[in-house]
Amino acid sequence: MRIAVPNKGRLHDPAIDLLDRAGLHVVDGADRKLYAQTVDPDVTVLYARAADIPEYVADGAADVGITGLDQAQESDTDELVDLLDLEFGSCRLVLAAPEDGDIEAVEDLDGGTVATEFPNVTRDFFAERGIEVDIAEVSGATELTPHVDIADAIVDITSTGTTLRMNRLAEIADVLESSVRLFAREDVADDEKVQQIRMALESVLSAEGKRYLMMNVPEDRLDDVKDVLPGMGGPTVMDIAGKADVAVHAVVDERAVFETINALKEVGASDVLVTEIERLVE
Ligand SMILES: Nc1ncnc2c1ncn2[C@@H]1O[C@H](COP(=O)(O)OP(=O)(O)OP(=O)(O)O)[C@@H](O)[C@H]1O
Ligand SMILES: O=P(O)(O)OC[C@H]1O[C@H](OP(=O)(O)OP(=O)(O)O)[C@H](O)[C@@H]1O
Ligand SMILES: [Mg+2]
């Protein structure tokens, strides 16, 4: 089983970090290597450019891949299954034009030129609207092109909006919302190993923002404690040898921890421990 992961750029570190937290540690991932082993002898990591990953997965060089939805939409592959939103690399592809220019709506671009690193997505966007544009494919610094007469507008990535603002460009329309996904080739999407990887990654995401609470509770206050801990499927209750108290464990939303502990103390809980959760397999 091969999993393609961005070899550099902003997606590399968070992708490796997520695999790590999911228990799929890369064991010999020295810089500039093309392949690395993971702790699972059946899972190899293949490092590739974020833009090439959809094709690598579709062609069989890898079985699953971690890359942006924008890259999957741009590639000509349609046999990829979007298995899981990995909740990082969130950005938007937008159509933008000079703030002080004449282009204020998509229609104003009829007969014009649009520069982009995403020619296929851009072509589809205008074709769906019946607007004819020339596409100037660039490989970076797209924001410059409307200021040097290469294009009238651009389709490019934005997240904080800083780059557009710095280049005096205004958003005209949304083209695509993107985040990083786990993609699989259609013919392997249901394979056991692929599903195990999906589940492991999902368990990390499920644990994010959650805390594990442990406490001691007098048995006769258990119902009150349960009322305070709605949680997932109710708390786990265990007898403590030689004691009248019971131990109660529960998963609580991080934002509710402060309030929950105060309420627990009021109904008689003691020795409350709060810990982080690495993974949560539901
Ligand atoms: N500013 C941003 N905020 C959030 N996500 C982004 C941003 N820019 C890019 N991305 C996401 O990261 C992906 C890869 O972008 P990144 O800049 O890391 O690689 P790249 O520019 O293609 O790398 P290189 O050209 O150096 O190989 C994009 O396709 C998009 O999904
Ligand atoms: O809205 P912002 O937060 O300003 O982000 C948008 C910028 O981020 C990306 O560039 P990146 O930093 O990846 O540089 P690159 O052009 O070298 O890929 C993208 O191409 C935009 O230029
Ligand atoms: Mg970039």
What is the terminal-to-terminal distance? 24 Å
| Strands, total number | 15
Q: Would you state the CATH class of the largest domain?
A: Alpha Beta
Tell me the Rg in angstroms: 25 Å
The CATH homology group name of the largest domain = Periplasmic binding protein-like II
Count, helices = 8
Structural class comes to alpha/beta
Specify the CATH architecture of the largest domain.
3-Layer(aba) Sandwich
> What small molecules does this complex bind?
adenosine-5'-triphosphate, 1-O-pyrophosphono-5-O-phosphono-alpha-D-ribofuranose, magnesium ion
Largest sheet: 6 strands, mixed
H/E order of the elements? Answer: EHEEHEHEEEHEEHEEHEHEEHE
Count of distinct structural domains: 3
Determine the CATH topology of the largest domain: D-Maltodextrin-Binding Protein, domain 2
Order of strands in the sheet with the most strands? 2-3-1-4-11-5
Low-confidence stretches: none
As a percent range, the share of helical residues equals 25-40%
Mean pLDDT: 94
Work out the strand percent: 25-35%
Shape: elongated
Protein name: ATP phosphoribosyltransferase
Keywords: Amino-acid biosynthesis, ATP-binding, Cytoplasm, Glycosyltransferase, Histidine biosynthesis, Magnesium, Metal-binding, Nucleotide-binding, Transferase
Enzyme class: transferase
GO cellular component, one term: cytoplasm
